[in-house]
Hints:
This protein is mainly alpha-helical. Helices cover 70% and strands 0% of the residues.
Amino acid sequence: MNERDLRSIxxxxxxxxxxxxxxxxAEFAEKIGISIxxxxxxxxxxxxxxxxxxxxxxxxxxxxxxxxxxxEKLIPDNIVDILEKYKVDINEAFGKTLGDLHENFISQVITx
Length: 112
């Protein structure tokens, strides 16, 4: 991995996490104390940032700094968004399924 790859990963991750937190560039730039054009340049891979700014960004996004340098997840964002959107339904469905399995198991153990 070269510097260009690392810059690309960093810029995509910052933008992705910022959007996930539903923050505009203006809101986020103000929150971390940098200008909007500088944030835009970082998110477009045109500018590099200091370790201090990287730490501020990670803190504002409530993640560890290394997460901003990790290549894209194996699960595409659209799948993550779908899972997040239906999290309550999924938890209810799995909770019921696990509850049913547990009851089934207990009834089999008791009857033996």
